[in-house]
Amino acid sequence: MRSLYVVTHPEAAHHVEGIVGGWHDSMLTGAGKNAAAAIARVLREEIPVGAKVELISSDLLRARQTADEVSALFDLETIVEPRLREKSYGEAEGRPQQWLDQRFIPPPALGDRMNHDEGIRGSETRGEFARRVYAAIQEILGHDCEHQVIVTHGGALTFVVSAWIEMPFQSLGSVRFCAPAGSITRLRQDDFYRNREVVRLGDTRHLDA
Predict the structure, then answer these.
(1) Which terminus of the chain is more exposed, N or C, with fewer CB under 10 A?
(2) At CB < 8 A and 24+ separation, what contacts does 185-188 make?
(3) Nearest CA to 54 among 148, 163, 158, 154?
(4) Burial of 106 (0-12, 13-18, 19+ CB in 10 A)
(5) Which tens digit of pLDDT belongs to each residue from 171-193?
(6) How many domains does the chain have?
């Protein structure tokens, strides 16, 4: 049986400062670091001791800081994967969220949502975002490993899960899987039917402990 544990990094500075994240390289807050430690502990409880484990993380600081807690507890090297980054918001990154909200052009309800221009210079389209995350997950799933921990971002999680369930690219225009900051999503493939399950989506029970 194969299991993926998809972690969305916990609270980072841009969350509390009210600025646009994306590729803006903010760090975890104190609360975020505590949450990252809790994530590492619950993963250690869930993954059998002695099992082969792989740790892959977005290269952005807030994700790497989260991965560091897991790395220390499991004594693992982190594989850094830039394609697991959050969506790029171009020139809006690091600016107040209000700045982005005033300029953002919402996608149409129908039509070409994947290549929609949101009106923000340098930002990724939904299609560009999805393609790079899909490519990263396809490569990760090519690794021979029973347990894989993937540390990424809330927006990227949608395409991680979509890639896992093999959702066709042309169906991604409106899909969204919601997961709070600091959550763990458990994905599993059984050995007999080879079905790919979404066992838990956006679990945050460890944050209440």
Answers:
(1) C
(2) 185/5, 185/6, 185/7, 185/8, 185/157, 185/160, 185/161, 186/3, 186/4, 186/5, 186/6, 186/46, 187/3, 187/4, 187/5, 187/6, 187/161, 188/1, 188/2, 188/3, 188/4
(3) 148
(4) exposed
(5) 999 999 999 999 999 999 999 99
(6) 1
CA dist 33 and 38 (Å) reads: 9
Direct distance between the N- and C-terminal alpha carbons of the chain, in angstroms, rounded to an integer: 28
Q: Please state the rounded mean pLDDT for residues 89-105.
A: 98
User: Could you identify the residue written with the tokens 């995350």?
Assistant: 133
CATH number for the domain harbouring residue 50: 3.40.50.1240
SS3 at position 24:
coil
The pLDDT of residue 113 is 96
pTM over 0.90? The answer is yes
Number of Cβ atoms within 10 Å of the Cβ of 45: 8
Class of residue 171 by CB neighbours under 10 A (exposed 0-12, middle 13-18, buried 19+): exposed
Q: Which long-range contacts (CB under 8 A, 24 or more apart) does 107-110 make?
A: none
Whole-number Å distance between alpha carbons of 70 and 97? 31
